[in-house]
Specification:
- Helices cover about 85% and strands about 0% of the residues.
- By secondary structure, the protein is an all-alpha fold.
- The protein has one domain.
- The protein starts with a helix and ends with a helix.
């Protein structure tokens, strides 16, 4: 029993505490979602298209360096940096703001389809991103509860990206660049933070209600509460 209790105590430190996870991850998610597009808008409005593309690319490069300097895996940032660089090349070649921004439609569709494909392949994409949010031990990552929870999370995120792709396509075809950027901002960070919160709550509940971890979680939380009461005056 010693080894399962050790694994459970690791699960219960920060990964299963909803508020600490959101406080740690939500600001970074907002920054990663809005930073490049806000940088583009400032550069585009103040100077021109090339400056906007340059500002967005520079922001992504600085962000990537910051995350690596802090020794974070930065999987999301690495993916975002790669996409920003591809968009920059296409934007510079086309010289058109809508072409530059419109790549997000294809990127969202690709992300959504990739997420759904990863579930079908038995390797839910959310598991990889979850390692940055949930520093879980290997014993937990190999459990059925972990696999089932992140399979559902991956499906929900995949559906979101596909819906956002369709919404952005409609905005691109019917609105001005300013209108598209507004839709981009509204459909981006707020929904991403909401999905992050849902993912944390959903995963936490799955672990608490599971046969694999539920009883051990209750025991570990009771021990943590007892230790806290001893330290309190």
């Amino acid at each position: 029993m010693a080894e399962p209790e050790r694994a459970t105590s690791l699960v219960l430190t920060q990964p299963l505490a909803v508020r600490p996870v959101l406080r740690r991850s939500a600001p970074r998610l907002i920054r990663d979602a809005l930073g490049p597009i806000a940088s583009f808008y400032v550069g585009w409005k103040l100077i021109g298209l090339l400056a906007g593309i340059g500002f967005a690319t520079a922001f992504a490069l600085v962000l990537y360096r910051h995350e690596r300097r802090n020794e974070r895996p930065a999987l999301v940032v690495r993916v975002a940096l790669g996409l920003v660089l591809v968009r920059a090349v296409v934007g510079l070649i086309s010289g058109d703001a809508k072409v530059y921004l419109g790549q997000e439609v294809a990127i969202d569709a690709l992300l959504g389809l990739t997420a759904l494909w990863s579930v079908a392949a038995g390797r839910p994409l959310a598991q990889a991103f979850g390692r940055e949010v949930y520093p879980l031990p290997d014993e937990v990552r190999g459990s059925k509860t972990f696999a089932r929870a992140f399979r559902t999370v991956t499906l929900v995120w995949g559906a979101y990206f596909l819906v956002r792709s369709a919404l952005r396509l409609v905005a691109l075809l019917t609105l001005s660049v300013d209108g598209y950027l507004l839709v981009d901002a509204v459909s981006g960070a707020p929904f991403l933070v909401g999905l992050l919160a849902w993912s944390v709550v959903f995963t936490t509940r799955r672990f608490r209600r599971s046969e694999e971890w539920g009883a051990q979680i209750v025991l570990a939380e009771a021990k943590a509460a007892e230790a806290a009461s001893r330290l309190s005056p």
